[in-house]
Amino acid sequence: MIFTRSILSQVLPIEEISGEEICKVLNKIGLEVESFQKNIASKKVVVGKILECQKHPDATKLNVCQVAIEGEEGAYETRQIVCGAPNARADIYVAVALEGAELPQVKIQKAILRGVESCGMLCSTTELGFPKVNDGIVELDTSIGELIIGKELREYPYFNEEVYEISITPNRGDCMSLLGIARDLSAAFKLECKALCPMPKISENVPGIGRVLQVIASDKHRTSLLFKVIEAKPFLLPLGAVLFLAYNDVLTEDWLGNALRFSMLFSGVLLNAYPQDLRQLTSKNGKVVLNLKQDEQGFESIYQEDRKLSVIGINGYTENLSRKVNLNEEGREFIILEASYIPPEVIAQKAMESKPKVDERIFTFSSRGSNTDLNLGLSVLSNLLLNGDAVLYNDTQEVLEVQSKTPITVEIPLLSRVIGVELDKLQVVNILRALEFKVEISSNENLIVATPPVFRHDVVGFQDIAEEIIRFYGIDNIPSQPLSFIQQEQTNDALRFYRFRRNLSKKAVSVGFNEVVHFVFENKEKLQAYGFSVLENQLELINPITQDLNTLRSTLLLGLLRAAEQNRNNGFGAISLSEVGVVYDKWRNQSDKMAFLQSGFLSEERYPNAKGIKGDYFEFCDRIARVIGEFSLESFKSEIGLFHSGQCARILQNGKEIGILATLHPQVALDLGLDSTYLCEISLESLKDTLPQVKMYSKFQKTQRDLSVVLDKEIPYFKLRMAIDKLKIPHLVGFYPLDIYQDDKLGDKLSLTIRFELQSEMKTLEEKDITEAIYQILEMLKTEFNVELR
Prior knowledge:
Helix content: 25-40%
């Protein structure tokens, strides 16, 4: 919604309030200001009057105008100005840019146009830096103030303007009009709105509406309608109204459509018009019959005989510049004016179900909640149309559905606690009454009963009343205080650990591990065969459920292997499984573990990977890291027969062992019919559910250096890593193995390339800093591991 200070001042006395203060208050009361700008006409642009307008002797599209720029009638000071505007003609008031005027796009100078001297420029609104109102020069009228020839245009409020653009939330349909915004501002500034022009008085000799119009409601309806009839000649709307439409980008060439849009934006009432064919009107005994009934989709619509004229709240007056206008003897057009209201919940629900084609401007008003004061909307429209040569018929035709709101009981002490400040009862009453709530003060000094106005569709309960009070009391005026918890924390360690387990399972699923669940029982003989611990004899199960499940499990891995075997037998080549569960040591002490299995492909043979994606040890490590976080590996030889003796490692996290990761022993894989298979089992008690830690991010460039050395192949990488970490090299932010190379020439040695990343938080590292760090690392490796530089 866009409005200006000039249009707002028509309904609210804001002469003593600055634009900045208005913006501040609008933001405070929830009408967010998206933009605010001052739009002022240039100096040396004055009010002028075209006295003569003659065709240019040497150009068909140019006129030579004699323009009064100062003085009184009969003693004008004039300028000759050449103008090509199609609407230039004698006796109209115009904006004249004199020599030396600096417009937004051009500086005005005396010029010779096709041999004729031109001393100035007749301006359009766009040339002055204002929105476009027509295709020619701007025609000034008294809607901007008394027109005094020679007076600078910037002295008129409409051309020394403040323009406000505000964002209206969907629940505030009442603020989609100028009157709605003014209502909130009047409450915030404690100002009284100016009286609006009432419905114009009708002279005694004007016919009554009943002679020409009859309205019938044939079905049960939710719509309220109010009709007036007018005979009007097409005319130019007042410049002030046209500028208001142009700022909102809804100005068109249709005079009646412009009048409807201005009145809707001003009043917030849904308005419509039905121009009539006078010949058809005569043939029907001079009376139009309108019928309110439901259309084929169930929308309440206006029909004239069998022709549907409009759908209430969905569409309305359709602009058609080429339509045939039927005029009476006085040259006027017969038009039925309509103000309507339909509850927003009715039209929104129906539109959602039927999805009709809608006029967005009409539907936005109706679905968010238009103004229910139909008489107000018609009075604004009628007064606007009577600026032209028009005759307004006496009385109205109406079809009304009574609208009401449920009263809300407000406890002042409770309201004070909700808002967080002690409120005075009178203060609350004054705010609500300023917002046009009906307030009843009960005998109980702590209670009031507030009935929202019908146009406040967003206010239905106590919480909404609290929101209204806090909007106008001011959130900044409420002292801050710590939040106090009335209810104690209901969680405990068991619940938190359960949530931690479930989060790990979800992470595992997100990286492609399918979750499985097994009994807590296992086969004792298999556990012993693979080297896992089993229960002490005195603690064994007395009555096992089956012969194969005859003890409590001490590992999750055997269950995963059985599941993998079954999946492989069923034709699956890509198997990834995970399980979270409890295991038992030989003394029946319970602990929680998580296990993973990856076998065969990561992705089956399928386009675009016709040969599939083969899983490997390192990919398995990466997937587990995405579940439990970063970790390191330390190789060792396990006594568990499931694990490959040369591909088995402890999992270390923060220097603490948390589990084991290994390749399945080749013989076991062969017995089970599995391809390359990798296993991992982790103790959940060793993992921590910690929040991510913030680390400083350096803005200086990171540098990489590769170091290639030859060393004994029996030296594990983790020993190199631990030794490098102990050096605590400044600016070393990370390192990792990049490449390993072996061939017969190296014998029992191998070539290892390590990539180092160096970065400073204080500066860009110089070459000497980098060289010194790499040299220190190399010297340590030579000393402790007898490496050679490759």
